[in-house]
Amino acid sequence: MNVHARLVAAALILASIGACSPEAEKAGVPTPPAGARAENPDIHAFRIGALEAVALKDGDILLANKTGESPWADTAGARAALTAAGQSGDSITLSVQPLLVRDGERLVLIDTGAGGRMGTQNRLVASLRAAGVDPTRITDVLISHAHGDHVGGLVGSDGSLTFPRAVVHISAPEWDYMKAGAAQAGETALLTAVTPRVRPFAPGAQVTPSIKAVALDGHTPGNTGYEITSGTDRLLYIGDALHSSVISVQRPEWVNVWDSDSAAGVATREGLLERGAAESRRVYAVHFPFPGLGRFQRRDDGFVWVPETPAQP
């Protein structure tokens, strides 16, 4: 099965999310210990204004740069771009790094990683614990879209809830997409379990006090980014609007076969790059080299990704 097929299959994996009571939301959440943050390469603590945030490494997706594996048809062009950027032209590495944000009394996790699926290493829970956070303390899970590397970590290998106190938030169009996919895969029992736990929102909704949904059309029917704001500072979580820090940024016009609407996907990428560079917008890119923080910068007749910290493999 090629990678695209695995992504589509993994998109059908849903997860039950336990409802969060007001008492759970008010429960104390531990502060990530500074020593653990400094020593563990799978976590990166930073701030968005007054908000605390932590990049959490889940693993990597490794793709061969060849037809049937790479989502970009021009493998020779991809090889040239990757090589010029100092990377191997034979493969494409996509990091997987959900984002943790402390929003007042809420402890918010944006996406959940792959849960060990798709050749990944299933490190999210260990990364959370290294940051001083027990998974049971998560109050809200925000899903960008329904592919397996974003929803797979909602449950453990035994089917139990990874974040038993959390409420899951997902855009209404994406929730419809998930339900249709589950039905087609015969996952009616799982769909029955998850339905009362999910809180769909309208595109563009204010999901938590500091986090607003941003429609990023093209990748899936309800693909969503999240803008996190504190005072005058903000960070845009772009999900899978862009995948590669080299190819997606330097050649946004290339069709990505993982997108359900190619034209919309191209338009979204180009718009994010144009506005991001013009506004020097701070971005969190879930598949760029860890920790995925940086900005887009215009260079010559195109764009490049400028990481905020030295990128890790």
Description:
The protein is α+β, with helices and mostly antiparallel strands and 313 residues long. Strand 14 (283-284) and strand 15 (293-299) form a beta hairpin. The protein contains ten helices and 16 strands. The two termini are 26 Å apart.
N-end to C-end Cα span: 26 Å
Strand content: 25-35%
Unreliable stretches (pLDDT < 50, length at least 5) are 1-30, 32-37
Helix content: 25-40%
Basic shape: globular
Structural class: alpha+beta
* Average pLDDT metric: 86
H/E topology pattern:
HHHEEEHEEEHEHEHHEEEEEHHEEE
Number of helices: 10
Number of DSSP strands?
A: 16
**Strand neighbour order, sheet with most strands:** 1-2-5-6-7-8-9
Rg, rounded, reads 18 Å
Most strands sheet: 7 strands, mixed
Topology:
Elements: H1 3-11, H2 22-26, H3 34-39, E1 43-48, E2 51-56, E3 59-64, H4 75-84, E4 91-96, E5 99-103, E6 106-110, H5 124-130, E7 140-142, H6 148-151, E8 167-171, H7 172-184, H8 188-194, E9 198-201, E10 206-208, E11 211-215, E12 224-230, E13 233-237, H9 247-250, H10 262-279, E14 283-284, E15 293-299, E16 302-307
Parallel strand pairs: 6-7, 7-8, 8-9, 13-14
Antiparallel strand pairs: 1-2, 2-5, 3-4, 5-6, 10-11, 11-12, 12-13, 14-15, 15-16
